[in-house]
Amino acid sequence: MSGASSQPVSPSDLLPISGERRSLPNWKERWTAPLRVLPNLLVIGAQKCGTSSLHEYLRVQREVRMSRIKECNVLWTPAWSLREYRAYFPSRATCLLGGVKRVGESSPFYLFHPAAIEGARRLDAATRDLRAIAVLRDPVGRAWSHYKHSQRWHGESVPFEQALDMEEERIAASEADFRSYSYQARGDYALQLARWFDLLGRDRVLVLEFTEVLAMRAEMRAEIARFLGLSGPLEGEFGGFNLGRREELPAGVRARLEERFREPNERLAELLGRRFTWMR
Question: H helices of 232-261, where?
């Protein structure tokens, strides 16, 4: 793990670096930021692909510590510092005494937001062994789930098909709209993954399929553990993804989205050298 700075820090020095989040590091975490470590693991997305469940599952592993606050959402924001970022993570002493090999956080916006790459570049230079995990889902189902999420949390009032028609104009309007209404754009996985491959290399980015993560069989537990350099496979019961009550996507809109993602899916298959179960 990366060493801590000895420079003192006060709460007034720390910007609200996580943007529109429900919580920030508390006063104790901010005061002790110089004694804390930086993460060497990022669960980068995609949104609505089970990253919350994966975050919680990794959090209980013996050699892993995940940020208390999920979705720190720091790396894409302007004017953030490594010192401020440390406030989200455990102390150096805790990691040394606990034999911790990976400290991480999960922010699904990192995969999609181009600015997160430069933030990750700074983080990688500081940690020297940054790893990233991306979980991908059928982009049609992901877009629909994203839309339902936006209805619940972001006041989305436009019918889904109309929202698809308006998407390009809406996400160009503001950072908030870019985040909330990017239903189709977030499904262009090849474009997004290519940036992370260019930064970290293929061997430091693990790409998983949503349905395989949901099942979390022994082979998946072992694969993730090997990628993270842990002593043994992941342990314990995986909580799974809270699908809740699902509303069916209208057939006509499904056909439209399947056609929309046909070419991006082929580019993804070419990039990864594999096809996912949702590819036709």
Answer: 251-260
The helix/strand/coil state of 52 is helix
Q: Which domains does the chain have, with CATH numbers?
A: 39-72+101-237+248-272 (3.40.50.300)
pLDDT digits (tens, 9 = 90+) for 241-273: 555 456 789 899 999 999 999 999 999 999 999
Query: Distance between CA 130 and CA 114 in Å, rounded?
Result: 18
Element (H, E) at 36: none
DSSP annotation string for 52-66: HHHHHHHHTSTTEEE
Closest CA to 234 of 43, 64, 95: 64
Dist CA 54 CA 44 (whole Å) = 11
Which amino acid is it at 120? A
Using CA atoms, how far residue 168 sits from 125, 155, 187, in Å, is 34, 18, 14
**How many CB atoms lie under 10 A from the CB of residue 97?**
9
